[in-house]
Amino acid sequence: MKEIIRALDNQPLAIVDGRKFIINPLTEQIPFTSSELLSETCKLISQKLKKEVTKLVTEEDKGGILVAGTSMITGLPFGMARWYPNGLANQISEKFNMEYCKGNLYLNGILKGDKVAIIDDMVSTGGTMISMIKAIEKTGAEIVQIICVAEKLGYDGIQKIKEETGYDVDIFIKVDVSGKKSKVIL
Asked: How many angstroms separate the Cα of 125 from the Cα of each of 46, 65, 90?
């Protein structure tokens, strides 16, 4: 966890639509994402996965690299929720509203009977995760597990996810963004 903590602790914060956004190497590639950081993160996620998981899913923005790396380690296939439609048959659409934008997610690659683990970088308000859960439920797949690297404190995202969907979210660390820089809380 050394590389993850280093990536998310004591990082600058930017205000986007009135909310604090962590500028960091894991999700923003600022200054860059090292192979050590990506490898450590995907290995931790892989170790936490439940054995019954048959497919991974994420959204294409920040979770994409995490799911791709985890897929390579575990050999599990993945599906992805995109931010734009591709017009292909069986694409599932779901509205979302997250901390700095809103729109639709378009889910591909998840089928009835799949036992999925949702993987993402960070939970803030929970909006994207709630939409991914709803989209997956429309497919008839079973959500076995939700794993996020971190929870941004002060936005109540994990609580909102639980209240709206009934699902728990496994996280590795919490990040306090109440000051001028981020602070990791283990």
From this structure: 25, 21, 28
